């Protein structure tokens, strides 16, 4: 989804433009200050936001909200649409022993493929370290600048 405020996480009318979300967001440019009805308002650039949800907890004005598409997901499955899922590692942490049962239910309901999102993290860490090692002896002006949006990934690297 492109544009402002059109993604999963969005800003509602409670926003007072206090900037707290900017200072706590790991993605440069994901929060965009605009003027709405004559007042400062912080919308989300949905092309940059990674939907981490941190600002929902950070915003004390309850101005960050999310769109719940669970019903649409099950309705589309019922219609026979081919849907594959990437499961975030937190899924297993939250549901524990129930996780395999939920995965089984989703398969029975027709989910096409289910991937483990943790692989993305491993690949990303591996490729970043590989690049750093390969580029470390290049002249400074030939080394690319690495900026990663994920603080957890940076900690791993
Ligand atoms: S969304 Fe919340 S934290 Fe961000 S500027 Fe608006 S009120 Fe402040
Ligand atoms: S959901 Fe995460 S990435 Fe998106 S604006 Fe909020 S803190 Fe930034």
Could you characterize the architecture of this molecule?
This protein is α+β, with helices and mostly antiparallel strands. It folds into three domains: 9-66, Alpha-Beta Plaits, CATH 3.30.70; 70-116, no CATH class; 118-156, no CATH class. Helices cover 38% and strands 15% of the residues. It is built from seven helices and six strands; from the N terminus they run βαββαβαβααβαα. The strands form three sheets. Strands 1-4 form a two-stranded antiparallel sheet. It has a two-stranded antiparallel sheet with strand order 2-3. A hairpin with a 2-residue loop joins strand 2 and strand 3. It is flat and about 55 Å long. It starts with 8 loop residues before the first strand and ends with a helix. The mean pLDDT is 88. It binds iron/sulfur cluster (2 copies). One iron/sulfur cluster binds next to helix 1.
State the low-pLDDT regions, or none.
none
Question: Which structural class best describes the helix and strand composition?
Answer: alpha+beta
User: Which fold does the CATH topology of the largest domain refer to?
Assistant: Alpha-Beta Plaits
Strand count, sense and barrel status of the largest sheet are: 2 strands, antiparallel
Report the total helices.
7
Q: Write down how many β-strands occur, each being a DSSP E stretch of 2 or more residues.
A: 6
Listed once per kind, the bound small molecules are:
iron/sulfur cluster
CATH-scheme architecture of the largest domain? 2-Layer Sandwich
Approximate shape? flat
Order of helices and strands: EHEEHEHEHHEHH
Question: Order of strands across the biggest sheet?
Answer: 1-4
Strand share of the residues?
15-25%
The helical percent reads 25-40%
Mean pLDDT: 88
């Amino acid at each position: 989804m492109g544009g402002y405020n059109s993604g999963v996480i969005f800003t509602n009318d409670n926003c007072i433009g206090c900037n707290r979300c900017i200072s706590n967001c790991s993605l440069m440019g994901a929060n965009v200050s605009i003027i709405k009805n004559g007042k400062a308002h912080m919308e989300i650039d949905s092309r940059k936001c990674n939907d981490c949800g941190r600002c929902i907890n950070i915003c004390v004005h309850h101005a960050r909200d999310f769109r719940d598409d669970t019903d649409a997901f099950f309705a589309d499955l019922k219609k026979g649409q081919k849907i594959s899922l990437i499961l975030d590692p937190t899924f297993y942490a939250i549901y524990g022993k129930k996780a395999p049962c939920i995965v089984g239910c989703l398969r029975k309901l027709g989910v096409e493929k289910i991937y483990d999102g943790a692989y993305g993290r491993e690949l990303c860490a591996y490729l970043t370290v590989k690049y750093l090692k390969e580029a470390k002896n290049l002249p400074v002006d030939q080394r690319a600048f690495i900026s990663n949006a994920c603080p957890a990934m940076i900690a791993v690297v």
